[in-house]
Amino acid sequence: MVEGATGLKFKSPPKVETRTRDELRAFLETKFNEDQPALELAGQERAYKLFGVLPDSLELREFLLKLLGEQVVGYYDPATKVLYVVSGEGGAAPPPEVLNVTITHELVHALQDQYLPLDSIAKLRHDNDRVMAAQAVIEGGATYEQLSVMLGGASLAARMPGGWDRVRQTIRDAQAMMPVFATAPMFIQETLLFPYLSGAEFVRQFKARRPGVSPLTALPVSTEQVLHPGRLLDSLELPVSVALPRPASGSIVYEGGLGEFETRLVLHQFLRNAESAARGADGWAGDRFYVVSVGGGAALAWLTVWDSQFEAAEFRDLLARAVAVKAERDDDEIGEGRVLRLTGKGRQHELTAVTVQGRAAVLYVDAPAGAPTKLVDLARVRLGGAP
Q: What are the backbone angles phi and psi of residue 340, rounded to the nearest 5°?
């Protein structure tokens, strides 16, 4: 049934082994530590706390491990090529309907792994946007095909009451019922749901536009392409790679990129308006940030590149409003001009409208009060094609 839904054939039969729930949980924790090295995850945590999307009190590794162990039923491991399934030994066996859904989903991953190196994708470093985009096809594809198998290969939108929107809401509701997930910050919830919801939507549109072609043959390289499938399927619009020079002062603690989806989440964190956040992130063409150790603590420098001057200006305006909320200041204190400055809660913020190699861009710096804010030499920034 999985082969029929995906249009791909297993090159070799998948290997299946059973484990107790505790054994599978311990195995997943080991895999997590391999895929998320401590220094890498600590750097991400530092960055996302500076962006304001994670609370300062959150211990990210500890929380993600709790999430990982929640309702463990099965897992396909691309390193060992084994599909592990909870046996029920030493505890209650998973309900048959849950087990069937999980096995179908993981069988799709086992099939995907015979056509795509899943293990290599998981180990990409400092390119979270590209990893999320690839995961959207992997997890979204498994979700879409799993549902297709459950419905006997029929059109999901036609068979599900309420159509495709209801499918998406059902997935979201199922996750929200998990106790640990329900306590997660909005940013973590949405980034975990993105591969399943937006990924399944991408796969649905891909299969409608390119019948008989596997989505694995055209992996998106940015969340922008996942959110707007036409920018990959119709125009092959590629993101701009952004290379930042070494900071003018201080040392780099961590660097990475957000992409359109996480840029949207940063705006939504403070604006609490999904439409404004989506509008502000639309037109994203590329970005790069680094966290820098400076006097007084850590500073953040984030350069975003845009498709047009108008979209860059709209983003800067909305980001300024978000920063005002973050700094607990009023909007009317932001000011006007090419450089917007705002101070509050022991931090200083600068949002500068710039042009880099002919492209409209916005440079945002968040630094401790009294620390230098001239961190990026814009003349040395380099833009390129797709990474």
A: -100, 130
d(CA 381, CA 35): 30
pTM of the shown model = 0.93
Whether the CB-CB separation of 289 and 282 falls below 8 Å is answered with no
Identify the weakest region by mean pLDDT among 52-61, 174-183, 300-309: 174-183
CB neighbours (10 Å) of residue 245? Answer: 13
CB 361 within 8 A of CB 304: yes
Instruction: With CA atoms as reference, report the closest residue to 21 among 89, 103, 75, 105.
Output: 89
Q: Write out pLDDT tens, residues 71-82.
A: 788 999 999 999
**Model confidence pLDDT, tens digit, residues 92-109:** 677 888 889 899 999 999
Tell me, what amino acid is at 201? Answer: E
- In the block, residue with structure tokens 């006997």: 152
Residue 368, SS3 per DSSP: strand
Q: To which residue do tokens 């409208």 refer? A: 353
CA 115, 120, 126, 131 dihedral sign is positive
CA atoms within 13 Å, Cβ hemisphere of 344: 15
**pLDDT tens across 16-26, in order?**
999 998 899 99
Helix, strand, or coil (residue 38): helix
> What mean pLDDT is predicted for residues 336-344?
91
Render 89-135 in DSSP notation, one character per residue.
TTSPPPPHHHHHHHHHHHHHHHHHTTTS-HHHHHT--S-HHHHHHHH
Q: Are 204 and 163 in contact (CB under 8 A)?
A: no
Q: What pLDDT, on a 0 to 100 scale, did the predictor assign at position 153?
A: 61
Structure tokens at 325: 């909320």
For range 257-275, the mean pLDDT: 97
Show me where the domains of the chain are located: 2-224, 241-384
Q: Copy the structure tokens of residue 377.
A: 């030499």
Beta strands across the sheet bearing 347-356: 251-256, 284-294, 297-306, 359-368, 347-356, 339-344
205's tokens: 């549109």
Q: Which residues pair with 340 in a beta bridge?
A: 351
Looking at the predicted structure, is the pLDDT value of residue 186 above 50?
Answer: yes
